Amino acid sequence: MSKENETSPWLDFVQRVERAIGEPVESWVRSDAYFDLVTQMNRARQRFTKSFEDYAEQWLHMFNVPAASDVRRLREQLGRLERMVEHMSNELADHAETALDSPPKRPQTRAPKEK
Asked: 69 with 53: CB under 8 angstroms?
């Protein structure tokens, strides 16, 4: 036998073990039961996370400390305010630009009312 065709006995062993374990795992991961289990686990994790956050929020509020949900709401509100200010400043800049482009209007004088 030549050295090029020889493989290490350890490599042969690892490849056999990997195939013995890997094939059933691969078929399980492709099955409907696996996807059902993943869906149920994600739902359970979401419920657990929500209940934990609710309890933590209650405790923090009991000691008058803002919770993460409070900070999140403030950030959202701040973002909305920043967008409004940006929009208003753009409108003001557009208005000032159009006022500079057009010639100033003379105030119309009215004839005095006759009594």
From this structure: yes
Provide the sign of the torsion angle of the four alpha carbons 85, 90, 93, 99, taken in this order: negative
Q: State the Cα–Cα distance between residues 79 and 69, nearest whole angstrom.
A: 15
pLDDT digits (tens, 9 = 90+) for 14-48: 999 999 999 999 999 999 999 999 999 999 999 99
C-alpha atoms less than 13 angstroms from C-alpha of 92 in its C-beta half-sphere: 6
DSSP 69-93: HHHHHHHHHHHHHHHHHHHHHHHHH
107 vs 98: CA distance, rounded Å: 18
Rg of the chain, C-alpha, whole Å? 36
Report the predicted TM-score, pTM, of the whole model to 2 decimal places: 0.49
* Cβ proximity of 68 and 53 under 8 Å: yes
pLDDT of residue 115 exceeding 50, the answer is: yes
Is-contact 60 66, C-beta < 8 A? yes
The DSSP string of 34-66 is HHHHHHHHHHHHHHHHHHHHHHHHHHHHHTT--
